[in-house]
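Incident log, structure service

09:12 report received: a user says their structure output differs between two submissions of the same chain.
09:20 pulled the input from the user's history:
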Amino acid sequence: MAACGPVAPAAPVLEAESVRALSSAGFTVIAAGGGGIPLVEGGDGGYQGVEAVIDKDLTSAHLAAELGADLLVITTAVERVAVDYGRPTQRLLDRLTCGEAERLLAQGQFPPGSMGPKIGAALDFLRGAPGRQVLITSPQQLGAALDGHGGTWLDSEPVRTTEEPFNVTVTAGRPQ
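09:34 re-ran on a clean worker, output below:
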């Protein structure tokens, strides 16, 4: 099993139980897509709005973890993650381990404001429990990627060999 480093403490997603209930009842729930109001808990147990930016990729990873998902899907404007993005040496990646993703992130291959937040959220999700996977792909390629034909897969451990179904959470991201 590949080491994936310690997991960062996650702030709870306030409406996670509502999302769980609606999802369990068969509804398609769209949550953590950005544009929400950042809140902090006050001393009186209530919440108040604060000036901050909600990272939708990281929030989606935290929500997926709270819901017990073992697959996080992050959609973005590109079919696969690339190293040397936009350069003549660009390479599209089919699969990454935690260690490889951590190394490439540290090398600056995934800049902030681009693929960096998506890889960071993916690593945070993978670190939370063994057996989790992350798929990063475009909305147009999502079906094919889920069937194993495209996208970039990130694994916390060796690839699954069973036909066990995934518990899937999907988020939309910004273009790379």
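09:41 both user submissions now match this output. Likely a transient worker issue. Closing.
09:42 reviewer note: The first strand starts at residue 39 and ends at 41. Strands lie at 39-41, 47-49, 71-75, 82-83, 91-92, 95-97, 133-137, 152-155, 168-172.
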